Amino acid sequence: MCGIAGIFHTQGLKPVDPARLQAMGDVIAHRGPDGEGVWTAPGVGLGHRRLSIIDLAGSPQPMASHDGGAMLVFNGEIYNYRELRQELRAAGATFRTDGDSEVILAAWQHWGVGCLERFNGMFAFALYDLRARTLLLARDRLGVKPLHMATLADGSVIFGSELKQLLAHPMLRRTIDPLAIEDFMAWGFVPDHRAILTGVEKLPAGHYRLLRHDASPPPSVRWWDVSFTERVTAREKDLEAHLLERLRQAVTSRMAADVPLGAFLSGGVDSSSVVALMAEASADPVKTCSIGFDVAALDETSWAGAVARQFGTEHHARTVSAGDFTLVDRLVTMFDEPFADASALPTFRVCELAREHVTVALSGDGADEAFAGYRRQVFQHREEQVRGLVPAGLRAPLFGMLGRLYPKADWAPRPLRAKTTLLSLAEDGEAGYVRALSVAGPGLRDALTTPEFKALRKDYRAEQPVLDLMRAAPARSGLDRAQYADLKFMLPGDILTKVDRTSMAASLEAREPLLDHRLIEFAARLPEAMRVHRGTGKWLIKRTMRRYLPDDVLFRPKMGFVTPIAAWLRGPLAGEAGAIGQSGPLARTGWFDAARIRELADSHASGRADHSRILWQLIMLERSLGCLDSSLLA
Question: Which of 105, 246, 313, 384 makes a 20 to 30 Å CA pair with 23?
Answer without folding.
Answer: 105
